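Entry:
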Amino acid sequence: MRISAVKLPTRVLLSQALAGVLLAASAANAQVTPAAGYTPPDDTPKIGVGVTIFADYTYNAAPEIKDSDGNSVNKGEFEVRRAYINVTGQLNHLIAFRITPDIASRLATSASVSLPPGASASASTNYDGSLVFRLKYAFGQFNLDEPLKSHGSWIRIGQQQTPYVDFMEGIYRYRFQGTIFSEREGYLSSSDVGLSGHYNLPRNYGDVHLGYYNGDTYSRAELNDQKAFQIRGTLRPLPGQKLLKGWRLTAFYDHDSPVKGGDRERFIANTTFEHPYLNLGFDYLDAKDKTSVTKAEVESNGWSVWVTPRTKIGLEGLFRYDDLKPNDNVDARKKRTLVGFAYWFKFSRAGLAAAILGDYEQVKYDSALARPTEKRYELKTLFNY
């Protein structure tokens, strides 16, 4: 990783400024309260197993495809997009772990997201359409609650969640429909191999998560000597205010080098709001990709806004709009519109979830991108234990 010490990009300065605000909030709000009594930590070794399943039916209204006999048809398919087996546990109250194999459709893994500038898709094989068993997460965790006096603070090593995607999925609960904007367009991944740390600010003012990763994501092996640095800082401005305690401001920065002398940068500014009757979010993405010293740098930008109105009886709406300019030098944009309605089943036990979603998704490309409009009708399901 090479960042100039003389001229830092504006997005780096913004990330550092937010980190400074968060640290200042931590110092200003740290308090020591007298102990009401000592409860010894639970050092009993534990292990638990859970599952997550994404299953769906998708009807592609446009564009049409050719079947094996050359007929024009609208493709429709039942699919299992994801099947996670989550194994979690602790050796004692200081050391924990997680292993998550990911069983996925080979076609889903290669076609579920767009590729970033300069990337290429893998060639088709006779395994297309089969389910592939691969590792999504496998990490050890050292809990820092006691030394830092901050619950939820830790250090992880291994294949693990990256700072931004996992955080956003805790607010945007519709990964089973499709990934968040920056991941769906191929700019970020939800998992990578490396070392990271997380710290929760006192009194629920926010958190900081930073990591040092291979940078080639969990789906590809490390290809060079370069590493990725990622940092996310989130500030909750009014955690004690009843109406606005669900409002958060987030800045994220990612720097990597896919090749020596070629930089890859992502900066995201985000705001979200959570309420029993409404969740909403807005992302702005700015990206730079230089995949070779012999190729020109590609700059891109885009934004996404989504809202999920909710009811007490489990009915929810999903409305989302994405707008991406893949190359600043080309006057063309990709636009995604998503409208859906879901029912979330009620469970008394935490950690259980089941939902069914019906949605319509349209992706339009400006003429310079030379791609046909996509239209899909989908029935999506989530099962989580």
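DSSP finds five helices and 18 strands in the chain.
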